[in-house]
Amino acid sequence: MEDTSIVQLLWDRCEQALKELALKYGRFCHKIALNILGSPEDAEECVNDTYLSVWNSIPPQRPSVLPPYIGRITKNHALNLYAKNHADKRGGGNLPLVFEELDEVVAGYETADSELYRQELLSAINGFLASLPSEKRKIFVSRYWYAESVRDIAARMHMTENHVSVSLNRMRNQLRTKLQEGGLFS
Q: Cα–Cα 20 to 30 A to 114, which of 3, 18, 130, 156?
């Protein structure tokens, strides 16, 4: 079923929309949640929460592109569940490593102007991503948006793990340089 039809079913409050959403995007959402949470049971809970959130948000929202919309909702639910599950401990899963890798590039700017800084940072990162070749952008987004492991990215992209790791390291360095040039990182 086409995304516009699924959105229309959601808009019309037809429960068939949830079945179609699960059929078309269930694996996509589950993969995002599993990458962050590392637990199939938690990922399943997160995906179910995603369906409920989509049901509750359409209407009034009417997303023009469905995959990023539900991907963002899934990721937010997974991050919230991850924070709840790991409130007093560290480790378990891919997420701490993913955040540590980017932490040296974008962390440490909590000021009164944090929202302005966040908007400038977001704009700079989007510009950086737009400047990357398609393959590099896919690697970067797979790692830092979908929290995929280097191994999974390498397998999907038909590359060695070393190639993916080196590419990610180079892209982080390029991003750091871009942020420094823009005055967003010292």
A: 130
Domain with CATH 1.10.1740.10 in the chain: 3-85
CATH topology for 3-85 is Rna Polymerase Sigma Factor; Chain: A (1.10.1740)
The fold for domain 95-181 equals: Arc Repressor Mutant, subunit A (1.10.10)
Tens of pLDDT, residues 80-113: 898 888 765 544 555 666 666 766 666 555 454 5
Burial 58-69 (b: 16+ CB within 10 A, else e): beeeebeebeeb
- Provide the whole-model pTM: 0.69
Q: H-type helices in 86-160, by residue range?
A: 95-106, 114-131, 134-144, 150-157
Alpha helix (H) residue ranges in 38-112: 40-57, 66-85, 95-106
Rg of the Cα atoms in the chain: 18
